[in-house]
Amino acid sequence: MRAALHDSYGPPDVLYVGTVPVPKLQRGQVLVRVHATSVNAGELYTRAGRARLVTGRTFPKRTGIDFAGEVAEVDPTITGLRTGARVWGVLPRTFGSAAEFVAVRPRNLSYAPENLGLVEAASLPVGTTALTAFRKARLDAGQRLLVRGGSGGVGSIAVQLGKALGAHVTALAGTRSLDLVRELGADEAHSYATTGPSDLGRFDVILDTVGTELRSFRRLLAPGGRMVSIAVDLDHIAMSLGYLLASTVHGRGRVRFFSGNPQHDLLAELAGYVERGAIRPVVDTVHPLAEIATAHRALEAGGVRGKHVIQVV
Predict the structure, then answer these.
(1) Does the pTM of the predicted model rise above 0.85?
(2) With 50 as the cut, is the pLDDT of residue 248 above it?
């Protein structure tokens, strides 16, 4: 099968499309024919080698985390899934969905939303990150929510989800994306270029998708407020880890980091929001698999509106 690979760490140009074996179905697994995947920030870091202490030096390496496609084969021990079913999901703490097939366990997927095509659907599994973040932050109706990176892959979904949960949503985004975040439901939209933390009010919940200036944004929390960060500032890693230590070891922090590993129930809940019309996909560009390097380059350049999607078939 065709798959996106890289034989070294480096810039997007290290990516290419090669041939690897179709995954052999193990007991308790489902083989999915991938129609599309999307590019996520974590893939940029690992491809560049910024996580090489974890990812190691064995090559070739794969890329791609989420997927939308059709069930191609089901292990006989599994009930309730049929060949041809439209599904979406996220690989469990690994890469490899930028390929024609993936093998996963049923807990790592759910039925894709019935009202979307699979290419559009591939832009949305990352929305489980916003669902988990708001659960951790205990976001409630009537509370004031700030979304940093409101036009990005996670942020564009978080704005919609925050509105669906009844929050007053303020979004920070690039100047050219302010109309977009308002269309998605933001009550207030401000440009990074002209608005700093000191220009904003107090918030009950802050969802940070950027990872920088955590201290400055933490000061915007109202009494009892919570900030959830899904990004780490790699240029100031010591400060980010300090916040993480205070939050998870000492239990006194108001900043929470987490790494998502969504499973069936969360993916099914997200599909429900999509089918009810509360969340819609925001696709910046659809790239063929052969242009995987172009998609990585575009995400690194910034200014993304939603997701860069990779169409496999």
Answers:
(1) yes
(2) no
